[in-house]
Design a protein that fits this description.
about 55% strand; elongated; about 160 residues; single chain; 2 helices; about 15% helix; mainly beta; Lipocalin
């Protein structure tokens, strides 16, 4: 009888350890997520104040166990990156190019590692955000331009 009771206690403990809530952040992020929308806000006052929300429901992000990230849209691979979790609350996308070019040949923001704050991470909902400030020199403009960039990504399983 004692063996049966011990078996039930051990089995219950093992089941509790495998619950989704008890898993690591890496485990929770791993898998294929479907986009909901992506919001990008760019401010370079007084010249630019722009916000754009794009529907991304045809986009899938495959966060692989090996740290690879493949983003596909309507069956076409549009990006291949790396990803990692830092401090259980930060999603680092490795090699992300925000695609922002400065008019007039002033360069742009190249590929880099971008740190996103994980705002929600549930079994079926994943939202993360980054806020960046970049100072660039634009030809013909006597002072450096300060650009504030905020990006919010919303995904679902």
């Amino acid at each position: 009888m004692k063996k049966i009771a011990l078996f039930i206690v051990v089995a219950a403990s093992l089941a509790a350890c495998t619950k989704w809530e008890n898993q690591s952040t890496e485990f929770k992020v791993t898998g294929v997520w479907t986009g909901i929308n992506s919001q990008l806000t760019i401010k370079a006052l007084p010249f630019l104040d722009s916000s754009d929300v794009q529907n991304t429901s045809t986009t899938e992000a495959n966060f692989m166990e090996n740290g690879g990230l493949t983003i596909d849209s309507a069956g076409t691979r549009i990006d291949s990156l790396g990803w990692a979790i830092s401090n259980d609350t930060i999603l680092v996308l490795k090699g992300l190019d925000l695609g922002i070019e400065i008019p007039g040949g002033g360069g742009g923001l190249g590929a880099s590692n971008v740190r996103f704050v994980i705002r929600t991470l549930e079994q079926d909902a994943f939202t993360f955000r980054t806020d960046t400030n970049v100072t660039v020199t634009v030809p013909g403009v006597p002072i450096p331009l300060s650009i504030d960039i905020a990006q919010i990504q919303r995904w679902e399983k």
